[in-house]
Amino acid sequence: MSSRKALFYALLGAATLGLSEFLAAWRAWRAAGGLGHVAQVVLLGLGLLGTGLWLGFLLYEVDRAAGRVRRPIGLYEWIIGRRGRVDPEARRPVVLPGRGVSLHHSGRGRG
After folding, report:
1. pTM exceeding the 0.85 threshold for the entire prediction
2. By three-state DSSP, how is residue 94 classified?
3. How far apart are CA 104 and CA 21, in angstroms?
4. Domain locations in the chain?
């Protein structure tokens, strides 16, 4: 198993467990209130957001390398650019095999 795949599954597991903890903290905050519960909800929420963005980045990076990205996502493109892995071929439109039809939409009818 590649390290990227292992990282993906580890992040997915962390997000699943984190969501459970976040919901438990949310219920505790709503029931009892208090600054401690608010801080726990905020920290777990930020952790979930970061994990979700990281999972999305891993999926985007794989799809981009395979040429399956139709609309670039600015944040992820910025991160890839900062890492020095900009591949100009990854930005080309996807062409379906045997059809010569591009999935790049021109906005003028049949693309």
Report:
1. no
2. coil
3. 41
4. 3-91
